[in-house]
Amino acid sequence: KKMIQNDRKEYDRLWEQIHQDEALDLTRLSDMVQSMDNLNEAHARQFNRNADASLTWEMPDPAELHSIDECNPVRTIIQRSSTRSLTSEIEEWGIVDKSASTDATISDTGRMFLGSSNSNLPIPISPSAKRTSSSATLDISAMGAAFKSIFASKPRRNSKTKDETCRVDFSSKVTSLDQLCAQATGLDPILRSKVKEWAFGSQGLFRYVHPDGNQDFILWQDAVDHPEKIEGIRFAKMKTVRRAVEKLMRSYREDVSRLLDVCRQCIVFESVKDLTSCLRLIHDDPEVEIVRIKNRLDPSYNSTESAGYRDVALNLRICNQQSAHMALDTH
Predict the structure, then answer these.
(1) At residue 330, does pLDDT exceed 60?
(2) What is the 3-state secondary structure (H, E, C) of 164-195?
(3) What pLDDT, on the 0 to 100 scale, is given for residue 149?
(4) What is the pTM of this model?
(5) pLDDT band for position 177 (50/70/90)?
(6) E strand segments, 240-329
(7) Contacts 24+ apart (CB under 8 A), 55-59
(8) CA-CA distance, 268 to 203, in Å (whole number)?
(9) CB-hemisphere CA count at 13 Å for 299?
(10) Which of 86, 207, 255, 329 could form a disulfide with 201 if both were Cys (CB 3.0 to 4.6 A apart)?
């Protein structure tokens, strides 16, 4: 406890400032997370694929705006048109200020909230760094591997069809670590492609290492057309086998199905509003099923559980043509 006492004090100081400056956005974020009442925590496990599930996938018909998922009758399905770009949607919602500069001005808060889905807390930055704006992170874990005003109406349910959900055999849990790691290896580039898409549509940043070795953050919008900048981005790495075994032995009683973050990524944001816009994009992505979400930016969250560290963490499955073809759509 003494080792992390200073870290916690710094996290708490930053949280108090964010809570004061962005109280309304924090409330909207919490409301959005709470509205996702179709999430089933019991499904936050690694399950095998149904033997008769197809190895192909088709974009859901956007005309089917309301349908019932026969595999989960409680869930109301609302589809999002695949023909609309992510950028056009968020501009319509009024989330992005087109006149704003896209220069990546990084705050000490942004550095403080850099995280990943593992249990190691990020190292605090130097106290001498100046805070220019608030920030937060969204930790994303593929299962088996790790936002118009937002609430003009009740958020749409996660876009899923009968075929997509029924690909998962909820009666058969994954028991092999070898199988889990192999699936995570195949899904890692697919997840990375997705987080780039979401970051582009929500002012998301990634960890960046300059040629001189100095570390910073960079807007994906600023890096996407510059190969030399992309080379400096450090995306999250997969959990090592050694670390996976440690987690299984220490925390999960050797239950492989509970290991959900072998494949994971992290997006950093300068504001809670940007983070919320990203969560909306993920929620409305027809290729994604959010299985579990942990909002450590909720004012009611007891930060002592994470030594003051806060983020928003998602567990999700990706079902598209690539993942289905390699039978990774239930991972």
Answers:
(1) yes
(2) HHCCEEEEEECCCHHHHHHHHHHHHHHHHHHH
(3) 30
(4) 0.74
(5) very high
(6) 264-269, 288-295, 312-318
(7) 55/324, 55/325, 55/327, 56/321, 56/324, 56/325, 57/164, 57/319, 57/320, 57/321, 57/323, 57/324, 57/325, 57/329, 59/286
(8) 9
(9) 14
(10) 86
